[in-house]
TrEMBL record:
Residues 1-336 are annotated as: A. Molecular chaperone. Has ATPase activity. Coiled coil: none annotated. InterPro entries: HATPase_C_sf, HATPase_dom, Heat_shock_protein_90_CS, HSP90_C, Hsp90_fam, Hsp90_N, Ribosomal_Su5_D2-typ_SF. Its main location: cytoplasm. This is Chaperone protein HtpG. Pfam families: HATPase_c_3 (PF13589), HSP90 (PF00183). The keyword Secreted does not apply. SMART domains: HATPase_c (SM00387). ATP binds at residues 36, 40, 82, 87, 95, 101-103, 124-129, 176, 336. Keywords: ATP-binding, Chaperone, Cytoplasm, Nucleotide-binding, Stress response. It is found in: Cytoplasm. Residues 553-624 are annotated as: C.
């Protein structure tokens, strides 16, 4: 029989792939479907509470929000119903017929490539309603938007085979009712005790009562029994909450499948009253660097859900933090734009930021292995902190980790405190080098002097490092110094060598003048150096000049930049330089000097403006 407004629609192409994978692949942990549907019902209740603040008629004289589950063994069906906000016909089509989610393709690819973690991926990517098809070969959904007339109900049905039907129906109560027609072999889910176990496992902390229908065949009666505790866990006394409770709550609010590294549960009273429960995850989400990455924490006001992913309370460089804040001070009728500019909101952001940094300080102090995991996953994000947060600059600097010439690998495990504790006598500054890769940094000729003097140098090769270092001025009274820049502190390290250098400079002045005439204004200066041992020449920048790495960074961002003027430093002790200084033929001498400069530029920049010209020159000199 054709119902009023009945239509058949094809699923979006990605939904078809997703449903196919749901039905044929995701079988390792089927019970996760119930967590997803209960979470959806809880969200619907939260939305109704929020909207009803300005329109109490939406409650339709039924203020007791709940989700109910009933089992029919004869028909082999499970019915999950809620009296939340419900949906209109358009919302059903928009929310179920398509997936308006940027991660869908990644989800499908991940399921296809990782057969061992399929059950975990559901929660990780939040596919929600579609998880019904793991155990059901037909799904029926009846819904009506709160506040709409009774004849505005909607019936949606699908067997998960590429299309769905939708029709208008009458529905007396608001909210959504989902009926799952079980596949063969899924009879475990018809067992009431098994369903109670699943609800307690995944949804015990849901602030919405979850009730299951209990049939007493002996007395021929039916009753609804509440299964979960149905309270806001974050408002409970901390002494009553176990680590397992915190882990399960984290997984519920984040859809993560791994336990968090650490958390902080805190209640503040006084000028501002709020409760916060903040978590540091143990792994970064797949879309951490996407522009549409959903970050932030959940906001509640007096237990009323206000918004998800509230960015206003956590700075961008801490965007990995998950959790919630429940405040008694924020006005409920405030718009999101006003909320963003609120003085109260800014104060909360300052307080929560300090709370998160304190969590990281404790983690670094008490559990170094756990902090290594944190840094590996989120170190790049935290490196944005020195530029973004002047208030907590000192704390962030202590939390930074590096690799150095003392390490045998690229793992960033060294703190600045570790570095300063190993500084040699007479060392005035913290030395670092930035490069395109760890290998390039470690093999830079600029390090030769520091190896000779046994001075540790921080090796920075992340793209953000050059930018970060421009915001790091000092640590523990020691300033930072790039080894590829000219600086007086380097001359002090060369005290003995400088005396020898002055003697050599006098004898090699004609050679230096000869080189300067060839290179002319292509370099800022030609000078001798005793910083080198195995390398004939390097290029450095003056203390007020832009570094090579900064120039690369700005160029990649599309900025037009002036040419970097390098200082050409020549090692007079190198055998090749000694031989070149004795060449009388001007053409041959020119080629050797050009080759030395090109070698130095290649070592510093990683590329040349005309690589072929360099190769031809080198081949010519090799033949000669």
């Amino acid at each position: 029989m054709i119902m009023k407004g009945q239509e058949t629609h094809d699923f979006q192409s990605e939904v078809k792939q997703l449903l196919h994978l749901m039905i044929h692949s995701l079988y390792s942990n089927k019970e996760i479907f119930l967590r997803e549907l209960i979470s959806n019902a809880s969200d619907a209740a939260d939305k109704l509470r929020f909207l009803a603040l300005s329109d109490s008629k939406l409650y339709e004289n039924d203020h007791e929000l709940r989700v109910r589950i009933s089992i029919n063994k004869d028909n082999r069906t499970i019915k999950i119903s809620d009296n939340g906000i419900g949906m209109s016909r358009k919302e059903v089509i928009d929310n179920i017929g398509t997936i308006a989610k940027s991660g869908t393709k990644s989800f499908i690819d991940s399921i296809s490539s990782d057969g061992n973690n399929q059950d975990k991926l559901i929660g990780q990517f939040g596919v929600g309603f579609y998880s019904s098809f793991i155990i059901a070969d037909k799904v029926s959904l009846r819904t009506r938007l709160a506040g709409s007339s009774l004849d505005k109900g909607v019936l949606w049905e699908s067997t998960g085979e590429g299309n769905y039907t939708i029709a208008n129906v009458k529905k007396a109560d608001r909210g959504t009712e989902i009926t799952l027609h079980l596949r063969k072999g899924e009879d475990d889910f018809l067992d009431v005790w098994n369903m109670r176990r699943i609800i307690s496992k995944y949804s015990d902390h849901i602030a919405l009562p979850v009730e299951i229908e209990i049939n007493d065949q002996e007395h021929n009666t039916t009753k609804w029994e509440k299964v979960n505790k149905a309270e806001a866990m974050w408002l409970r006394n901390k002494s009553t909450i176990t680590n397992k409770d915190y882990h399960e709550f984290y997984k519920h609010i984040t859809n993560d499948f791994k336990d968090p590294l650490t958390w902080s549960h805190n209640r503040v009273e006084g000028k501002q009253e709020y409760t916060s429960l903040l978590y540091i995850p143990s792994h970064a989400p797949f879309d951490m660097w996407n522009r549409d990455h959903k970050r932030g924490i959940k906001l509640y006001v007096k237990r009323v859900f206000i918004m998800d992913n509230a960015k206003q309370f956590i700075p961008n460089y801490l965007r990995f933090v998950r959790g919630l804040i429940d405040s008694s001070d924020l006005p409920l009728n405030v718009s999101r734009e006003i909320l963003q500019d609120s003085k109260i909101t800014k104060n909360l952001c300052i307080a929560l930021t300090k709370r998160v940094l304190h969590m990281l300080e404790l983690l670094a102090k008490n559990n170094n292995e756990q902090y290594k995991i944190f840094w590996k996953e989120f170190g790049l994000v935290l490196k944005e902190g020195p530029a973004e947060d002047t208030i907590n600059h000192k704390t962030i600097t202590k939390l930074l980790r590096f690799t150095s010439t003392k390490n045998n690998n690229s793992e960033q495990t060294i703190s600045l405190k570790d570095y300063t504790s190993r500084m040699v006598e007479g060392q005035e500054k913290i030395y670092f080098i930035t490069a395109d890769s760890y290998t390039a940094a470690k093999s830079s000729p600029n390090l030769e002097l520091f190896h000779k003097k046994n001075i540790e140098v921080l090796l920075l090769s992340d793209r953000i490092d050059e930018w970060m270092m421009s915001y790091l001025n000092e640590f523990d009274g020691k300033s930072f110094q790039s080894v590829s820049k000219v600086d007086d502190s380097l001359n002090k390290l060369l005290d003995k060598e400088i005396k020898e250098q002055k003697r050599i400079e006098e004898t090699l002045q004609p050679f230096i003048k000869r080189v300067q005439n060839i290179l002319n204004n292509r370099v800022k200066e030609v000078r001798l150096t005793h910083r080198l041992t195995n390398t004939p020449a390097i290029v450095t920048t003056d203390s007020n000049e832009m570094t090579t790495q900064m120039a690369k960074l700005l160029s990649a961002a599309g900025k037009e930049l002036p040419d970097v003027k390098y200082i050409f430093e020549i090692n007079p002790d190198h055998a090749l330089v000694k031989n070149i200084s004795n060449i009388k033929d001007e053409n041959n001498f020119n080629n050797w000097i050009e080759l030395l400069l090109e070698q130095a530029l290649l070592a510093e920049c990683g590329t040349l403006e005309d690589p072929n010209k360099f190769i031809l020159r080198m081949n010519k000199l090799l033949l000669s």
